[in-house]
Design a protein that fits this description.
By secondary structure, this protein is mainly α. About 80% of the residues lie in helices and about 0% in strands. Helix 1 packs parallel to helix 3, helix 7 runs antiparallel to helix 8 and helix 11 packs across helix 12.
Length: about 210
């Protein structure tokens, strides 16, 4: 249900940016990446080349590589369904799937993916119908997606109770902010990857060292 305000906000902002109605709906059907869709609006308005837009979207969606790996074993066996589930794997779908019992994930990943995208497309259409009127009444609508991410992160933390992902994210953001402002997300993701690999290496060394001592 959190997709409704975020999707409406996208539809409204797309209208404010001058994106045609058909293109706005197609973005939610074909691209279907909330943060990347928000990010591509100013690039579309500025008339940037497709290559530049695609590169930026790829950088923003790089995090999805980490989402796919833990869920590969729960994907449907049918090829078309499996392909769609990989395409429709968003932050919200990943959060819901990893919160479910492991024995129910394979049966639910396809319907959850379909429902989530359906809500997003419907909300986008509502935002398009509302148009710029809502943007005049409620400024900074793009903050709706950030709020949704915060809620998902909080729910994940309550379910898992692990502090190191939060620590890694904060450290990566601080380090990235010293080097760039235009490529903050990409640099922060790269730093996160290095920190995760360093931690995994340290844990492996610790476990191996403990085994040798025994």
């Amino acid at each position: 249900m959190g997709y409704i305000p975020a999707g409406i906000a996208f539809g409204v902002l797309a209208q404010v940016a001058g994106v045609p109605i058909w293109a706005t709906i197609m973005l939610s059907i074909v691209l279907y990446a909330g943060a990347a869709q928000y990010a591509c609006l100013p690039m579309l308005s500025a008339g940037l080349p497709i290559g530049n837009i695609a590169t930026n979207i790829a950088a923003i969606n790089l995090r999805h590589l980490f989402y796919g790996a833990p869920l590969l074993q729960y994907l449907p066996t049918q090829k078309l369904a499996k392909t769609y589930c990989l395409f429709a794997l968003t932050d919200e779908t990943f959060s819901v799937m990893t919160s479910l019992p492991a024995d129910t994930r394979q049966a639910l990943i396809l319907p959850i993916s379909l429902f989530n995208q359906s809500w997003w497309v419907l909300a986008t259409a509502i935002g398009v119908v509302i148009g710029s009127a809502l943007d005049d009444l409620v400024p900074h609508l793009d903050f709706a997606l950030i709020c949704l991410f915060v809620i998902l992160a909080y729910e994940q933390f309550q379910a898992i109770k692990r502090y190191f992902p939060i620590g890694i994210a904060v450290i990566a953001l601080i380090i990235a902010s010293f080097f760039t402002s235009h490529w903050l997300l990409l640099v922060a993701i790269a730093v996160c990857m290095l920190l995760i690999l360093a931690r995994a290496f340290w844990v492996q060394r610790t476990v191996t060292g403990g085994s040798d001592d025994q």
